[in-house]
From TrEMBL, chains A, B:
Pfam families found in the cross-reference section: Hydrolase
Classification of source organism: Bacteria, Bacillati, Actinomycetota, Actinomycetes, Micrococcales
PANTHER family named among the record's database cross-references: HALOACID DEHALOGENASE, TYPE II (AFU_ORTHOLOGUE AFUA_2G07750)-RELATED, HYDROLASE, HALOACID DELAHOGENASE-RELATED
Keywords of this entry: Hydrolase
Claim: Hydrolase is one of the keywords in the record: yes
Protein's name according to its UniProt entry: Haloacid dehalogenase type II
Length: 249, 249
């Protein structure tokens, strides 16, 4: 029933969310256009989404390097929104606070790529499936509920108390699952995420998302590491894990 | 869409698990009979289940009073199994360790009461639903997966880092849900759980489970507090929350 690689079987698949499971760029652009369009007449919602996302790693880095205690991603996203407005030389006092809070919820209203629900519906027959995302729990719940993503649990940074790619985010997630790291497979569209997961002892699966950053994407178009599985989408992932489990049955 | 009591709407329902959602006594008795029957010829599996459960609160109390750090319930259950065997004057060395470990997984193989799945399937249309149980995450995942319980997330003691009825277990769960305590309703078959939830600011719903402790049950047969909802089962709970939400719509 389970995929065997080496001595131990994979029992759980954990998924990066932003980019791997959901199309954050399109979803945030839509939310920003709806919420902020009337306040920002020259708004390019995709450029705004890219700017907002560009503050993501720097904000988490303050938590990872210990210069501030762990705070959930909703808080970082809201701070980053103010940062983006400042960079665009918009006075945030020109926009009501509740409008900015509502814009922040754009990150809770992201839609999955089309292959995600059918793929996960197959994968959850044989594996525990959960996000291992830097999203906070409520964000991931809202994303899952709007699209009926069949997660078995919501794991990730908030439960682990650490942001990827900190080793603790991967190791503690395996502990919560009651599994050794090698019984857990990280699925991500980002080679850096998989490198950190592999260094923590997890198995790895790369699924390319060449449209994550829009038409001009240059990063993560192909696997750059020695990952256990490389698949074109979640259907391909399910196909490969099913054939592996037959070989080892 | 949501139930309004006072000023704020309930957005999430959180559930006690052992007794309220699942019939732990029957499930543990079945597991114990399967695993330990050949080693314990005079075993009464229901008596054994009751003895095992009787060590539950004392074991958690060591964590609650700070005399030991938080450890997940699987660890406490395994220690308590040794305690029960000692009380029955069984030398645990007479039983292989892997048999005892397997017996401990009886707590992962509990079945829900018959009204649970249909009730939760209705409730999850209008509310975030999650266990707020002292079970660890993996235990709750295994219980949910075998019966396809449609939780939106697995919350509870391990995520909160505190065992009920510690106030922190309730307050931190509301925080993870991004909600004020009064936007969260605790559903339980135990008046003591609801009293602690209410003291922490949560709404409360009592669902009696008169067979939880078998035919001779004397406790928690009726509500003893001023709970927001009292229902005979999860169908009744769904009925009442639906009619409340119509009144406030």
């Amino acid at each position: 029933m389970h995929m065997g690689i080496g001595d131990s079987e994979v029992e759980a698949l954990v998924f990066d969310m932003f980019g791997t499971v959901v199309d954050w760029r399109e979803g945030v652009a839509t939310g920003v256009a709806d919420c902020l369009g009337e306040y920002l007449p020259s708004l390019d919602p995709w450029e705004f989404a890219d700017l907002w996302r560009s503050e993501y790693q720097p904000a988490m880095e303050q938590v990872r390097n210990g210069s501030r205690p762990f705070v959930r991603l909703d808080v970082l996203h809201r701070e980053n929104l103010d940062t983006v407005l400042a960079r665009l030389e918009v006075d945030p006092r020109m926009i009501p606070a509740q409008v900015l809070d509502e814009a922040n919820l754009s990150w809770h209203r992201l839609d999955p790529w089309p292959d995600v629900i059918p793929g996960l519906t197959r994968l959850c027959q044989d594996f525990i499936i959960a996000p291992l995302s830097n999203a906070n729990v409520r964000l991931a719940i809202d994303v899952a509920k709007r699209s009926q993503i069949p997660w078995d649990a919501i794991l990730g940074a908030e439960v682990a108390g650490a942001y990827k790619p900190d080793r603790a985010a991967y190791v503690r997630t395996a502990e919560v699952l009651g599994l050794a790291p090698e019984q857990v497979m990280m699925v991500a569209a980002h080679n850096s995420d998989l490198a950190a997961a592999q260094a923590a002892g997890l198995r790895t699966a790369f699924v390319a998302r060449p449209a994550e950053h829009g038409p001009g994407q240059t990063s993560d178009l192909a696997p750059t590491g020695d990952w256990d599985v490389v698949a074109v989408d979640f259907a391909g992932l399910a196909d490969q894990l099913a054939s592996e489990s037959q070989e080892t049955a």
